[in-house]
Amino acid sequence: MKRPLHFYRGWVPTVSGRMSYSLLGYSSHPTPSICENIADSCHRYILCYQRRQLIDAMLPFRFGWVSRFFLNLDGNFWFVCVAESSNKVNDPAPLSGKLFIFAGRDKWRGQAENIIRTAQDELRGFYDGRKPEKSLKNHFSDRYHSVLEELSKSADFHVSFEMQRSGITTIQCPDAMVLSDDLPHFPPQEERRERLTDVVCSQLFFFLKDIAHHHQHHSPYTDTLVDIYPLYDGDDLTWRGETIRTLARKVVQYKRHRRNEEFFSALGILAYAKAFLNLSSKELGEKARDIQPSLDLDSLAFSIKASQSATHSSNQEKIRRMDNLRSILIAVVGIFISMVGLANLTGKKFEDPSPNLLLIANYMIASPFITISIIMSIIFLGMVFTGGIDFPNWRWVRGLTRLVQPLSREAAVLTLFCIGLGALIISAKYAFG
User: Fold this and answer.
1) Residue 288 has pLDDT above 60, yes or no
2) Is the separation of the CB atoms in 238 and 229 below 8 Å?
3) What gap in Å lies between CA 242 and CA 252, rounded to an integer?
4) Which of 35, 239, 255, 342 is a Cys-bridge partner for 25, taking CB atoms 3.0 to 4.6 Å apart?
């Protein structure tokens, strides 16, 4: 099935304004990448691949094997980057190459993995037995082009890309791509076909961004911090406006969470937005004023800092209350245990002791581990409700949230309530027999 030519453009965030290609390819998100990034004084070659899980959110945690075993669905895709650039000092030449997608474990391990790993070994061998007069380009140039040709024939989808030192990246779909027969064909309707093309190219851009950009100011799971946008008739303003709008929306989203780490993320992404506007002003000159929306980033930064200060004061008050509650609870339990211990040491008998008091005392003495667990649970719940523990962002909590996403709000709340009640009943049965 033939595909028409498409161009997309996006920005890989970099605050410094000059990206280092020497660090490209080394990423641990979402899985560790396998990369060879080799350069001499004149040239650089990068061969990198990574497995990425793109299955829908219905199967949380790490249960991809469930879909493979029961539904015969495999959400594993292998992404490959093969690229080169000049490595001369002060040479502004971009990093250029191709990005590939291989769907499914069988196809990847059947042919493509051997191609890329053999090429990586050969590239790595430049340092092993090179002659002083032999350059990296002479050593690997022919192999580089043969790898591009071989992978283009076997890949399920591929695009060409060009990344500037500034982070601005252009992605191009070839006009004669033949999609694999193993994949669902793109729909014949032009609008739906265009949309699916955008989605696939965005996934390739996210892969490139992950191996080129270190997630300092946001969670690595936030793929859509920036995206790519179609280019029409040489329009260099629309995609910039969409990029700055996406960054500003993410800043406001983090600002509304009212947590210190989210405020730091908001300020960090705001720095990205300022860097991108400065880059656009340098490249476009007066035309940069036409980028929409027009934002007052300095006022937004002041608002974030004001909200951060107010939230910090509120959190300090919550922490103080939680500390008082914890101190009182521990003191009461300590006094109670001390009184029971002293009574046992003196050998005196209580006159008409309360049956409930005796029951509690006997249980605490007979089951100290469970007693400590109950006390710690009360303290934990207090810290959750006062914001001392960021419980909603725990990995398994996010997994449960993903599990109920397809349900309505009422059904989701009921499902989570039943799961929590079941866990509480099991815990109580274990604790009290």
Assistant:
1) yes
2) yes
3) 15
4) 35
pTM of the model: 0.76
Rounded to the nearest 5 degrees, what angle is found at the Cα of 327, between the Cα atoms of 321 and 330? 140
Q: Are 77 and 101 in contact (CB under 8 A)?
A: yes
How is 113-127 classified by DSSP, letter by letter?
Answer: HHHHHHHHHHHHTHH
Separation of alpha carbons 229 and 223, rounded Å: 15
Contact 64, 45 (CB under 8 A): no
Which is higher by pLDDT, 2 or 253? 253
* Contact present, 331 and 375 (Cβ < 8 Å): no
- Using only C-alpha atoms, the chain has a radius of gyration, in whole angstroms, of 29
Judge residue 199's burial from the number of C-beta atoms within 10 Å of its C-beta, 0-12 exposed, 13-18 middle, 19 or more buried: exposed
Q: Is 99 helix (H, G, I), strand (E, B) or coil?
A: strand
Mean pLDDT of 164-185: 76
| Strands (E) located in 291-344 | none
Are residues 203 and 101 in contact, defined by beta-carbon separation less than 8 angstroms? yes
Report the interhelical angle of 136-154 vs 113-124 (nearest 10°).
Answer: 180
Q: What is the pLDDT of residue 413?
A: 76
CA 253 from centroid of its chain's CA atoms: 16
Question: Over the stretch 338-350, which tens digit does the pLDDT of each residue have?
Answer: 766 666 665 556 5
Q: How far apart are CA 280 and CA 377, in angstroms?
A: 53
